[in-house]
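>> Question from a student workshop board

For tomorrow's exercise we were told to take the sequence and the ligand below, predict the bound structure, and bring the output to class. My setup keeps failing. Could a helper post the expected result so I can at least see what it should look like? The ligand is magnesium ion.
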Amino acid sequence: MSEYSLNLEVLCKAGNLMQQGELVAFPTETVYGLGGNALNPEASRKIYAAKGRPSDNPLIIHIANLEALDKIVTHVPSYAKKLAAAYWPGPLTMIFHKSEIVPDSTTGGMDTVAVRMPNNKIALELIKQAGGYVAAPSANTSGRPSPTRAAHVYTDMKGKIPLIIDGGPVGIGIESTIVDITQQYPMVLRPGHITKEMLEKTLGCPVILDPAMFSVGANQQPRAPGMKYKHYAPKAELTIVTGRKEDVENSIIRFVREKEDEGFSVGVICTDESITAYEGLHYKSIGLRKDEHLVAHNLFGVLRAFDEEDVDFIYSEAFSEKGVGQAIMNRLSKAAGQQIINASSQESADEV
Ligand code: TXA
Ligand code: MG
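>> Workshop helper replied:
Here is what the output should look like for this input. Compare the format with yours to find the bug.
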């Protein structure tokens, strides 16, 4: 624990860098962030440049206390007060109407602003030292899997930013849940650790899922601009295989053999429950299937680990879309560019 305890000298230096318009990568409880002063348009421009991110994709402003909220939003709806009391600091981002003080470059030209208070001591102290408002996307190159440890940030950001703060591996491993509370009914724009069911229980009202959330490329535009891009993608071509357990295992083995016969290097993402099926193949277990928090925690790390081994193709088992599973499948299907094969219907099609 002590290895990653607060080092105030480092955090003061990092805060000064951000006050001067520089960028600093830092740990949060979800994924590592690439931080800059949210009220400085030049810092936002540097963030977009370092990530190679389209500048119409807005940034989340990170705050360290509730009092900081009033300055950057026009008003705080009652939904927000309830959700903040229940989940801040924590993995929840809320969308508000923005105040004048927030530069357009931070919100990608939108008149709303995304805000969250991370549940990580290093992040909270850093935000204070930086002046209270830190714009921070995930600290990956745009399109790549989000970083869940400092080494991932280093791979993507080396030579581009002056400082990475190593706070060890993150706790959660997938980005915050985003909920829009500017409309009549709260709407989840990006699923995460805090589920729709949890939000409904806290608010005592229905919470809608953005219908465009799972249908990239369809007519509907997601309300969170970042959700429209191919995202979280490893360098290898990823395919998700759904269906009955045995059908999935048999299909994956067949797909791997076919690709290997063509001379490709192929990886398999499986679970502790299915490891034995893939003996002799190049597999990585993402953890126990029934422990969805563990699967979420390991997801991006496994995708990055395959990148380091230069595999050409990855086949992954699918996961349940219940609870946090919804966030897992959202990230995994984006990483796969929606390439999903149903092994059970495939088998029956083959038999015909
Ligand atoms: O867990 C997290 O939220 C991490 C850590 C670092 O805090 N941050 C993160 O930021 O995931 P980023 O930039 O990678 O993703 C932010 C998402 C994007 O999809 C963006 O389009 C959406 O939030 N977003 C930001 N401002 C918005 C707004 N005003 N309206 C709708 N969507 C917004
Ligand atoms: Mg991101």
